[in-house]
C-alpha cells in the first residue's frame, strides 16, 4: 500500500497501535510492582528470611532498577555549594553573614570547643606544669629555658590535633559547610593559642613572682615562638598534609633547641638574658606577620576554590 492509499482510518489505527504499545509497557511495569508486592505479602515482612530462594531472587531483580548509589562526599559538597549559590542568587542573608561581628565569632568558636575533650585540656595543662617545674629546677641563667620551649611545641602539636581530620572526607565536608574556611580555621587556631597563652601567663606569674617589666619580658619570650611555631605547622599542613605539619613544628623546635645561642638574632626561643633578645623577638614578630599573610592567602584560595581539594596529602 502506498502513501496515497493511507486514509484517515489507517492513520488512526497506526496511532492507536503506538498508544497501545505505551500502555502495554506501563501495564508491564505495574505488573512487576504488583508482583513484588504480592511476594512481600505472601510472607510477613518481619519474617522476610522465610522467602524462598526463587522468590527472593525475583524480588531482588525487580527492585534492582529502583536502587540508587549512596552519595559520595564530593556529591554532598557539590550539593551544598549549589545550595549556597542559589541562596546568594536569591539575595537572602547567608548563615555566615554575621561573621564580622564579635558575637557571631564567639558563637562559632564556642561550637568548635566540642572537638576537644577534657583529656586534651588536662594533658596540655600537665605538660606546661612539668615544663615550669623543670625550669624552676634548672634556674634562669641556662641558655635553654625549658618552659619557653615547652609552650610553643605543645601549642603547635595542639594545632595539629585540632586539624586531625585534615586529609579525610570529614574535613572536605567541613569545608563545604556554610561556615567560611577563614572562620573555621582561625576559630580552631584561636582556641589552641588562647588556651595555651592563658595557662602560660598564669604559670609565668607563679614562676617570675610579680608584675611589671619582668613578667612582660618573660611572657613575650615564649609567646613569640609560640605564635611562629603554630603558624608554621598550620601553613605547612594546609599545603602538604597533617604529617608534614607535625614534622615542621618538631623541626623548628629542634633547630632552636640544639643550636640555641649559636643562631644569634635568629634564636627566637631566647630568654631575656640572651644578648640578642630584642633583635630575636623583632625577627619573630616579623615572621609571625609574614606567616599570617601566607595563611590568609591560603585560606582565601580555599574559599575561592569552593571547597578544599584534599587528595593524597595535597
From TrEMBL:
UniProt KW Transmembrane helix keyword: yes
Keywords, sorted A to Z: Membrane, Transmembrane, Transmembrane helix
Region described as Disordered: spans on this chain: 1-32
Domain of life: Bacteria
Record-annotated membrane-spanning stretches: 115-134, 146-163, 183-209, 215-239, 282-299
Start-end of Basic and acidic residues biased regions: 19-32
Stated name of the protein: DUF4401 domain-containing protein
Organism: Paenibacillus plantiphilus
